[in-house]
């Protein structure tokens, strides 16, 4: 059997592999099955923490690796365990929030706790941008720091996501990495951690390099992943920042954009 066009298929979840109702279409599922039959491996690379990924992987029949929490977690779905994780220092996170609020006033914060059983905690005033994802509301910001965290999620009552992300980067500096992963989702994660650093770890375990990898995404947090992979494919619904660095733009997530490309590559 000839080698597959790409040995590794790296896909974001929200806005990319998933439709708006959190499902994977039959067409996309079939395209992934054909790619696997041709010898390609599929790895999810997502901003979601591991506990919010496991049910989706089970639905896909996946029992391999997943890169979670913007690259801060490498998750082994078959054994429901983290092979690698990096936490965000909670004192630094609190300090970073203070620096941001000194520039733009009140922000509302949430955190994803580390671990396969970690919770998403939200402080008073924070609204979940993805209402299907479970979260626990706490009484005060100090409660967010009760356990180790993988990242902080930020919202502002009036600033657009791009504006908030730009201000946060300038204010936070070297304390953390700032990224935008979706509508209403600006995040602080451990310094130097990106989807690319997580994908590289996963690819090494799979014996695959960047030249063998095609990546799919829709938001600025996918930019580092596109820089690492041989080919980056942006969805039609993608943020302009990602489209600007993509090798190709496919149809939207609602129109099975991942499947459109995989069908061309793998038949």
Give your account of this protein's structure.
This protein is α/β, with parallel strands linked by helices and about 270 residues long. The protein contains 9 helices and 14 strands. The strands form 2 sheets. An 8-stranded mixed β-sheet has the order 5-4-3-2-1-12-13-14, sandwiched between helices. Strands 8-7-6-9-11-10 form a 6-stranded mixed β-sheet, with helices on one face. β3 and β4 form a beta hairpin. α2 packs parallel to α9. The longest helix is centred in the middle third of the chain and has 15 residues. The radius of gyration is 18 Å and the shape is globular. The model has no long low-confidence stretch (mean pLDDT about 95).
């Amino acid at each position: 059997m000839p080698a597959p066009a790409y040995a590794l298929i790296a896909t974001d979840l929200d806005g990319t592999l998933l439709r708006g109702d959190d499902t994977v279409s039959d067409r996309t599922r079939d395209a992934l099955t054909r790619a696997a039959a041709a010898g390609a491996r599929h790895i999810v690379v997502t901003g979601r923490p591991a506990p919010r990924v496991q049910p989706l992987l089970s639905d896909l029949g996946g029992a391999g690796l997943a890169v979670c929490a913007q690259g801060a977690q490498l998750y082994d779905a078959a054994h429901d365990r983290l092979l690698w994780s990096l936490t965000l220092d909670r004192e630094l996170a609190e300090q970073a929030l203070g620096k941001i609020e000194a520039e733009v006033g009140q922000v509302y914060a949430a955190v994803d706790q580390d671990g396969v059983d970690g919770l998403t905690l939200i402080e008073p005033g924070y609204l979940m941008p993805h209402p299907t994802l479970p979260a626990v509301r706490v009484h005060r910001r100090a409660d967010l720091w009760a356990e180790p965290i993988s990242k902080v999620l930020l919202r502002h009552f009036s600033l657009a996501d791009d504006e908030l992300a730009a201000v946060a980067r300038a204010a936070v500096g070297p304390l953390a990495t700032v990224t935008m992963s979706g509508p209403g989702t600006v995040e602080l994660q451990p310094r130097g951690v990106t989807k690319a650093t997580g994908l590289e770890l996963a690819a090494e375990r799979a014996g695959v390099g960047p030249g063998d990898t095609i990546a799919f995404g829709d938001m600025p947090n996918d930019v580092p992943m596109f820089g690492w992979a041989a080919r980056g494919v942006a969805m039609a619904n993608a943020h302009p920042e990602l489209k600007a660095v993509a090798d190709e733009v496919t149809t939207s997530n609602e129109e099975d954009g991942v499947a459109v490309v995989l069908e061309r590559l793998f038949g």
